């Protein structure tokens, strides 16, 4: 393997087993919030978004990532060292993006800078990986590849010659140009006098004082090259430099200036100067040709991968600092189709608490246990409004995303059979142009789901089929659940249709995924049922606690009657 075929994310980059999550599922799981939390800089957003929406379902690949993630979690030397390398990788990428539209002289300087950065990045990577004592197979392989490159004699020769080449071109810091004037004191002719190793310095004073006093070499009368110049030679010169009128020069180093064509003349003159500089730097170009086979491109993809791991490790440490339990999930065989979570929480809920200034979240966010196994792989989740049902089903989906991208999950313990896709069905607003109505749209989306999901998929439904009458909704939902059981998926269906929680009838039908009931538990507090946000595996209570909701929003009969009485009605 060489660097071009190496990846910290994919054990075999040539045959990636990426699973693409649909935009609907990404929206329902609020992945945009997770992406924002994982980005160490805004420019990495597209890369992070792609990584977590194209996760892996392969146990070996996930384990490969978990090992790399563990190195970043364990070693501050690795994290800090890679942070220092990221700007250099970004600069390399910028240099590579400029190559398409440069002059020969600009290409020479770009190539020199590229090779200098290439050497610097490899040396730094070698040092960081060595000091961090990396343990993951991926980073040990990267260390081996870097050592292999840096140990080659050609690399050592290049490393020795580049500083010398840089010094030789750095000495070219100014040009001396002579400009002749005609009888009307207009510039008529220009000649290159010398190429110098010192910069000119302009001072503002009168011509008389300049003629009367002897000035040191390289100190001029005034500066003419200001980009803010509005008139005079400075403005003309800068216009020629920044314009698009550069043409091939005459090669003599001396050109005539016509009164009506200053811009064109100066463009030609500066083209001549560039040609002369190319001739001057030709020895540098000849040396660089020795390294024509050396390219930095294979390093460029490491920037996004490193940034992802840095962001993931930083997020997990941040959540742990807030008191949120984060653990490395044990990976189970996908064939088992089992998940076991102890104290599972919703990572985005924790981030929202943090945004509101909350701390010590271990005592504020309720963790829940859930087991997808032979006793229950499809759960009917019922309970009161605002009881945490949506938060819970999002937590299940996000835990799989975090696990399969190689990171820790928000739970005390977790063991997970990787899935081959996440499919969601959350409420959406009815489109005004729809001819089928909301129920038709819901049904179409549910039908499409069965064209994609397999027995290894995770399906999350939130108040599906609530757009029709309760009786019709229950009838339709039972058929959907029977089909899910037959398919063999893992699923959670959050609903107010409590009749669905009577799962025995559906379990009698053929299928490999048993149905079970989950309930968002409440605790009686006087006349109200207080939300505990605990999700327990128990029979549905068959109550939606609508009376609590009515009192909360002041629309219970008693509250409305009180309003009318105060109005004497």
Low-confidence residue ranges? 231-236, 240-259
β-sheet strand percentage = 15-25%
Summing up helix and strand content along with how strands pair, one would put the structural category as alpha/beta
Q: Fraction of residues in helices?
A: 40-55%
N-end to C-end Cα span: 85 Å
Number of strands: 17
Rg value: 35 Å
Anisotropy-based shape: elongated
Q: Give the integer mean of the pLDDT values.
A: 83
Count up the domains.
3
**Helical run tally:** 20
In CATH, the homologous superfamily of the largest domain goes by the name: P-loop containing nucleotide triphosphate hydrolases
CATH topology of the largest domain: Rossmann fold
CATH class descriptor name of the largest domain: Alpha Beta
Summarize the main sheet: 6 strands, mixed
CATH architecture of the largest domain: 3-Layer(aba) Sandwich
Widest sheet: strand order?
13-14-15-11-16-17
Characteristic terms for this protein:
3 domains, 569 residues, alpha/beta, six-stranded mixed β-sheet, Rossmann fold
Task: Describe the model.
By secondary structure, this protein is an alpha/beta fold. It has three domains: 3-17 and 57-167 and 291-311, no CATH class; 174-280, no CATH class; 322-566, Rossmann fold, CATH 3.40.50. 47% of the residues lie in helices and 15% in strands. Strands 13-14-15-11-16-17 form a six-stranded mixed β-sheet, sandwiched between helices. The termini are far apart.
